[in-house]
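Re: [help] complex structure
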Amino acid sequence: MKEPSRTLAWICPHCRQSVIIERTAFALTAAPSRLPCPCGKSELRVEPMDDHFRLTVPCVSCGKEHSVVCSQEAFLHQRAIALSCAASGLDCLYVGEKEPVYAAMRRLEEAADLLPGQDEEEDGTSHFLNAAIMEEVLGELKEIAQREDGITCACGSRRWKMKVGYSAVDLICADCGAALRVPAATDSDLDDLCCKTKLVIRNGRG
Ligand SMILES: [Zn+2]
Ligand SMILES: [Zn+2]
Ligand SMILES: [Zn+2]
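Output below.
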């Protein structure tokens, strides 16, 4: 039997290349790994702890490193997990089976292309990663909200508020506090939302 392996993928904040690495579950669990980008300027660090992993992830959207803890179960067995940057709302690392990780990466690359380059100064006029898509997404959400029971929470509540972020919109239940993140940066984000007639808030992504 082939040894189970995990695919890890992120975008290097320095050279902006996608880095996709495959490692066996055994190698990841046996000892800490340092997985450098071929450019040598950033690296992903994976440290196995008792029942979880500590990850240090170079983040393309904010340029910093994020230190994250991930349960062993999710890290080694879940089909795909996404870790996201708290500052931008964009994902910074995918871990999982090859196929869903590659699919998620294609999407992240699309969003990362919109980030201001390292040398470019942010002009300060846009509060959104992609203002045009954000506008469309907000319009679409408004339409869904106008339908009967268009936006509800899994807890049964119909009261919610909206928090508009840099690359996503969060719908937050006013009763239980559950949040649904609706990504709003790329054409695929908009396409995904357009095919929905109703949204149910439960913790996770839309
Ligand atoms: Zn690099
Ligand atoms: Zn970040
Ligand atoms: Zn609720």
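The chain is about 25% helix and 35% strand.
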